[in-house]
Structure formats: structure tokens, C-alpha cells
Amino acid sequence: MGVLSEFKAFAVKGNVVDMAVGIIIGAAFGKIVSSFVGDVIMPPIGLLIGGVDFSDLAITLKAAEGNAPAVMLAYGKFIQSVLDFVIVAFAIFMGVKAINRLKREEAVAPTLPPVPTKEEELLGEIRDLLKAQNNRP
């Protein structure tokens, strides 16, 4: 029973829950970026370089024989994955940069001392009068 309670304490900690949410959002973001790269970025690039679709680029190492499939070196899929990574990394970099800029702006903003209320001003005056009375000979 001790291991189960330790696991429960571990699993419900804020860090674990936050990490799980981050992983789920990251997976969804990865799908969005893959679609963006495959459906928006790659078609114009393919058009510019003569209609080449990177994901179809491959070298046949061994032709198909009977029921055995062909052995292919699919370097186009690798190029696509590298491009996906670069775009995701750039998007994350820009997001972190924006967050850091906002944090710096918050830190730089000077905080003005709070204006004392009328009650605080009266209490200060009473304190000063009591001090003055106590300092008399």
C-alpha cells in the first residue's frame, strides 16, 4: 500500500499534471506544424524547384521481389522531418522570446509607492504629536 500512496502523491503533483498538459498540447501543436509545413510551405518550395515533392524522394536500394517489398532509402521524408523541426524550433524560439520580452517589461515598469489613505495620514500626525510630547522636558 505504501508504493501505491507514493505513486498517487507523485501523480497528482502540479509538475506532473503540468507536464502532461504540455505534452498533449505539444503533440497537437506538432500536428498543426506538420500540416502547415506539408500543406502550406512545401507546395511553393516544390513549385520553385520544379515540382519536386520532398516526401516522395527516395532511392531504391533493392527492387521488389515476389512478396518482398522494395528496400527504399526515403531521404525525402527525412528532409520533411528536418524542415518540420526547424519550423517548430523557430516557432518555439519566437514564443519564448515574446514571453521574455513581456517579463522584462514587467520588471522594468517602476512601481509607485501607494498613496496613504486619510486614516494613515491622521495616524501619522497623531504619532508625530505623541513623539513631540514625549520628547518635551
From TrEMBL:
Q: Which GO terms describe its cellular component?
A: plasma membrane
User: What organism does the UniProt record list as the source?
Assistant: Pseudomonas hamedanensis
Subunit and partners: Homopentamer.
Task: Decide whether keyword Transmembrane is in the record.
Answer: yes
Keyword Cell inner membrane found? yes
Q: Which gene encodes it?
A: mscL
**Protein role:** Channel that opens in response to stretch forces in the membrane lipid bilayer. May participate in the regulation of osmotic pressure changes within the cell.
Extract the Pfam families matched here. MscL
Query: How does it sit in the bilayer?
Result: Multi-pass membrane protein
Any coiled-coil regions, as ranges? none
Q: Which family does it belong to?
A: Belongs to the MscL family.
Query: Per the UniProt record, which residue ranges are transmembrane?
Result: 78-96
Instruction: Please give the Gene Ontology molecular function terms for this protein.
Output: mechanosensitive monoatomic ion channel activity
InterPro entries per the UniProt record, alphabetical: Mechanosensitive_channel_CS (IPR019823), MS_channel (IPR001185), MSC/AndL (IPR037673), MscL_channel (IPR036019)
Which keywords does this Swiss-Prot/TrEMBL entry list? Cell inner membrane, Cell membrane, Ion channel, Ion transport, Membrane, Transmembrane, Transmembrane helix, Transport
Please name the HAMAP family in this protein's record: MscL
Q: What is this protein called?
A: Large-conductance mechanosensitive channel
| Localization, UniProt | Cell inner membrane; Cell membrane
